[in-house]
Specification:
The chain has helices spanning 34-43, 55-63, 91-94, 106-113, 127-137, 154-168, 177-189, 193-196, 201-209, 216-219; strands spanning 4-7, 25-29, 48-51, 67-72, 75-76, 98-102, 119-122, 141-145, 229-231, 236-238. By secondary structure, it is an alpha/beta fold. It has one domain (4-232): putative 2-phosphosulfolactate phosphatase (Alpha-Beta Complex). It has a six-stranded mixed sheet, sandwiched between helices. The longest helix has 15 residues, at 154-168. It is globular and about 45 Å long.
Length: 240
């Protein structure tokens, strides 16, 4: 039997404050919106996605001919081709294309997590297929919520709870309270996700300031993406 651990903030990745002992696999979650958009991009045929650490890199990759998807504090950068919402990653725009990707939270968490373990990208869209893949690998799983600027958030914790529940039903077990917190939140909200998510500060940010709350119902759909996004240290690819 293997363990599952939920890390409620990427701050716990600093100085490797992970309860689980290596080797393990990491699942990075950023429901609103990076990992949902990554899953959607691969659903629609993207070739690869390059996560960027710094905004200055966005100009370099744009000049190299990459499709640039980039936002800061939820707002699309002026020179970007795409923002950070899944509906922008259409077949017409991204099929067989290489995408450079910069976001406020998700891409930074991906890069930070890679220093510790193999990194996969999860969302509500691909819980089952990604979990089944990891179960076959038989390693412990550490689920990292990207949160908002290092603070925990509701939507990523909910999704982490959904992942954890699936793994626990498949002979995984948990040893720490981050997982129990995520599981309890998922149990509380799972039958009315769209209503519950309106408590989230990021939902309010998307709704009140950015006029982007329309993307939330799509982002809460379960298991519609048959993709397993994996970061190999240079690029994210779909390995399924």
């Amino acid at each position: 039997m293997s363990t599952v651990e939920v890390v409620l903030s990427p701050l716990f990745l600093d100085n490797n404050k992970i309860f689980t002992k290596a080797p393990y696999n990491i699942v990075v979650i950023d429901v609103l919106r990076a990992t949902t958009s990554i899953c959607t991009a691969f659903m629609n045929g993207a070739k690869e996605i390059i996560p960027l650490q710094k905004e200055t890199e966005t100009y370099e990759y744009k000049n190299k001919g990459y499709i640039l998807a980039a936002e800061r504090d939820g707002i699309k950068l002026p020179h970007a081709d795409l923002g950070n919402s899944a509906d922008e990653f259409t077949v017409e725009k991204i099929k067989n294309k290489s995408i450079a990707y910069f976001t406020t939270n998700g891409t930074k968490t991906i890069l930070k997590a890679h220093s510790l373990a193999p990194v996969y990208l999860g969302s509500f869209l691909n819980i089952k297929i990604l979990s089944d893949y990891l179960i076959k690998d038989k390693k412990p799983v550490v689920i990292v919520s990207s949160g908002w600027k290092d603070y925990p958030n509701i939507e990523d914790t909910l999704c982490a709870g959904a992942f954890a529940q699936y793994l626990l039903l498949n002979e995984y077990y948990c040893l720490e309270d981050g997982t129990n917190i995520a599981l309890d939140l998922w149990e509380l909200a799972k039958n009315n996700l769209e209503s519950y998510i309106k408590k989230a500060s990021h939902y309010k940010r998307l709704h009140d300031k950015l006029n982007l709350s329309y993307i939330v119902p799509y982002s809460l759909q379960l298991n519609i993406a048959h993709v397993v996004p994996y970061y190999d240290g240079a690029k994210i690819i779909n390995i399924f």
